[in-house]
Amino acid sequence: MADSASDVFSALAHPTRRQILQDLKGGEMAAGEIAARFNTSGPTISRHLSVLRQAGLVTERRDANRIIYSLVGDRLALSVGDFLSTVCPEQIVLREVRKRSPRAATT
């Protein structure tokens, strides 16, 4: 799995990869199911899936002769959140306020 936020942002640069991530939010899918959603060749979708996997945004597992893909839960949120925190310090403050607000409501 990649450690670099730049890998995540590079992976997000292509609309097909962003659509794949949106499709996977509903649960895991086989590579063939993913490919069937696009008017693109199987090898092209396979390359997109490889980029997403290299960026750590999806995982794959084998099920007989199928490859099943699923989202890596927090990877995208953490990468984008870390980036926003560096370029938009207000995000840090907002995050802290959200953390405290449930406790403030219970006291």
From TrEMBL:
InterPro entries: ArsR-like_HTH, HTH_ArsR_DNA-bd_dom, HTH_MetalResp_TranReg, WH-like_DNA-bd_sf, WH_DNA-bd_sf
Keyword set includes Transcription: yes
PROSITE patterns named in the record: HTH_ARSR_2
CDD domains associated with the record: HTH_ARSR (cd00090)
Xref: Gene3D superfamilies: Winged helix-like DNA-binding domain superfamily/Winged helix DNA-binding domain
Annotated keywords: DNA-binding, Transcription, Transcription regulation
All residue ranges annotated as the HTH arsR-type domain in the record: 1-91
Keyword DNA-binding: yes
Highest taxon listed in the record's lineage: Bacteria
Listed NCBIfam families: HTH_metalloreg
UniProt protein name: DNA-binding transcriptional ArsR family regulator
Pfam family, one: HTH_20
Species of the source: Antiquaquibacter oligotrophicus
GO MF term list: DNA binding
